[in-house]
């Protein structure tokens, strides 16, 4: 006989959890919104709340700006430099990504070849067998090239038909319904013809599950390349202005283009005279919503300003030195300094812009990766290393261009420790060809 001893104990445990209320979720969203998104959000709220009126403050700086990726000296500025140009073709967009992400190999040449056969809607217009024959490559090599092409943006590019375009988009979306990919892959025609009972029976899922997949598919695009090459008016309203003054730098929060909500006091007073309990409850509810929204909008501006001030403090040289050097800076560092979560910093800088006398920059631009130096305890940023690499290449003998290994050696002599692979990566980012393609035969 085995004896089992059962002992029942009653214990009380206290745990602490964060309850993500709807108000808290919307407060987080408001911080994440850029100016246009915030305006759209508040416009919807004013339609639902008669006690709110939306106003957009204008001022002396009401003109469009564009995020500046390159730096110009103050004497080189052009009045047209701040006009946003969104007319990049799909071909140019894909080529830029290829040079950025893939090394200069035979496979990359095949990818570029395929890009020439991407139509305006993002579809591949050449059969892979024909492509292999034209390039003298093997079919499997061309298939590998297409696979890499299909990993580029926009999702779905390089598809050979609508079914594949949808599958590529689903594959890239972590929020896609669980069965979406396999349904489109194995029962595309049946799904499109709404013979859903067959699909439900095959996978033992409900028609409600298939309806969810159908609703999701409606949000995907049948033309992944549509929209490129078109011209859109796109204005950027900076959230922060940095001005250089005699005694240093000043950081200001701009009201330009920022939506504000105003309480309709007169309407509230009129409606408050009603003896209807439902009306009074409604007014109380809408007043509370207004107060919360106003508080959240103000808090958004204060948070962005605090982050902007800390960025300017840590990247002071960028705003004062004409070379625009950037120090290594991580989101986590600012989060610890400002006593907020790292995700708060991320939301405060994404899609937010900082205006200077020499251009407008997205606030995320000022966060750079640190790279260790071999001869000191200090760090240098990836941006600084890229500038140094560019300087080395600019000074090389073009008749005998430096290999990546030689560049690596020269960087080590400067105290920068990175891998050969990183040298190739930075060279691609800078648009610097390989040593073979940089070689010149003229005097």
Automatic annotation (TrEMBL):
<dbReference type="GO" id="GO:0001216">
    <property type="term" value="F:DNA-binding transcription activator activity"/>
</dbReference>
<protein>
    <submittedName>
        <fullName>RNA polymerase factor sigma-54</fullName>
    </submittedName>
</protein>
<dbReference type="Pfam" id="PF04963">
    <property type="entry name" value="Sigma54_CBD"/>
</dbReference>
<feature type="domain" description="RNA polymerase sigma factor 54 core-binding">
    <location>
        <begin position="81"/>
        <end position="267"/>
    </location>
</feature>
<dbReference type="GO" id="GO:0006352">
    <property type="term" value="P:DNA-templated transcription initiation"/>
</dbReference>
<dbReference type="GO" id="GO:0000428">
    <property type="term" value="C:DNA-directed RNA polymerase complex"/>
</dbReference>
<dbReference type="Pfam" id="PF04552">
    <property type="entry name" value="Sigma54_DBD"/>
</dbReference>
<keyword id="KW-0548">Nucleotidyltransferase</keyword>
<dbReference type="InterPro" id="IPR007634">
    <property type="entry name" value="RNA_pol_sigma_54_DNA-bd"/>
</dbReference>
<dbReference type="GO" id="GO:0016779">
    <property type="term" value="F:nucleotidyltransferase activity"/>
</dbReference>
<keyword id="KW-0240">DNA-directed RNA polymerase</keyword>
<keyword id="KW-0731">Sigma factor</keyword>
<dbReference type="InterPro" id="IPR007046">
    <property type="entry name" value="RNA_pol_sigma_54_core-bd"/>
</dbReference>
<dbReference type="Pfam" id="PF00309">
    <property type="entry name" value="Sigma54_AID"/>
</dbReference>
<keyword id="KW-0238">DNA-binding</keyword>
<keyword id="KW-0805">Transcription regulation</keyword>
<feature type="domain" description="RNA polymerase sigma factor 54 DNA-binding">
    <location>
        <begin position="281"/>
        <end position="440"/>
    </location>
</feature>
<keyword id="KW-0808">Transferase</keyword>
<dbReference type="GO" id="GO:0003677">
    <property type="term" value="F:DNA binding"/>
</dbReference>
<dbReference type="InterPro" id="IPR000394">
    <property type="entry name" value="RNA_pol_sigma_54"/>
</dbReference>
<dbReference type="GO" id="GO:0016987">
    <property type="term" value="F:sigma factor activity"/>
</dbReference>
<comment type="similarity">
    <text>Belongs to the sigma-54 factor family.</text>
</comment>
<dbReference type="InterPro" id="IPR038709">
    <property type="entry name" value="RpoN_core-bd_sf"/>
</dbReference>
<keyword id="KW-0804">Transcription</keyword>
């Amino acid at each position: 006989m085995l004896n089992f001893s059962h002992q029942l104990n009653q214990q009380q445990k206290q745990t602490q959890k964060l309850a993500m209320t709807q108000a808290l979720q919307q407060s987080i969203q408001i911080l994440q919104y850029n100016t246009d998104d915030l305006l759209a959000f508040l416009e919807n709220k004013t339609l639902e709340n008669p006690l709110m009126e939306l106003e957009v403050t204008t001022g002396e700086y009401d003109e469009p700006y564009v995020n500046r990726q390159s730096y110009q000296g103050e004497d080189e500025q052009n009045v047209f430099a701040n006009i946003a140009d969104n007319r990049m073709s799909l071909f140019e967009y894909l080529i830029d990504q290829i040079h950025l992400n893939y090394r200069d190999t035979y496979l990359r040449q095949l990818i570029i070849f395929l890009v020439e056969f991407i139509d305006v809607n993002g579809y591949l217009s050449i059969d892979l067998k024909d492509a292999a024959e034209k390039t003298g490559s093997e079919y499997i090599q061309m298939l590998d090239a297409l696979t890499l092409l299909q990993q580029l943006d926009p999702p779905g590019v390089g598809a050979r038909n609508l079914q594949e375009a949808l599958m590529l988009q689903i594959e890239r979306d972590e929020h896609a319904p669980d069965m979406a990919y396999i349904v489109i892959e194995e029962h595309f025609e049946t799904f499109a013809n709404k013979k859903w009972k067959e699909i439900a029976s095959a996978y033992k899922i409900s028609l409600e599950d298939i309806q969810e997949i159908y609703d999701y598919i409606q949000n995907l695009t049948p033309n992944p390349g549509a929209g490129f090459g078109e011209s859109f008016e796109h204005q950027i309203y900076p959230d922060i202005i940095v001005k250089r003054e005699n005694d240093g730098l000043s950081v200001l929060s701009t009201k330009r283009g920022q939506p504000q909500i105003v309480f309709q006091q007169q309407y509230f007073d009129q409606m408050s005279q009603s003896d209807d309990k439902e009306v009074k409850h409604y007014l109380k509810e809408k007043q509370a919503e207004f107060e919360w929204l106003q508080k959240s909008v103000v808090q958004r501006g204060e948070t962005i300003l605090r982050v902007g001030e800390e960025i300017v403090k840590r990247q002071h040289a960028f705003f004062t030195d004409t070379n625009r050097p950037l120090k290594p800076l991580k989101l986590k560092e600012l989060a610890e300094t400002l006593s907020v979560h790292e995700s708060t910093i991320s939301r405060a800088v994404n899609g937010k812009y900082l205006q200077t006398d020499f251009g407008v920059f997205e606030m995320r631009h000022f966060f750079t990766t640190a790279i260790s130096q071999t001869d000191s305890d200090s760090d240098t940023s990836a941006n600084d290393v890229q500038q140094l690499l560019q300087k080395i290449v600019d000074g090389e003998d073009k008749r005998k261009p430096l290999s990546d290994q030689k560049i690596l050696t020269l960087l080590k002599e400067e105290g920068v420790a990175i891998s050969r692979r990183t040298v190739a990566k930075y060279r691609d980012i800078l648009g610097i060809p390989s040593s073979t393609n940089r070689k010149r035969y003229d005097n």
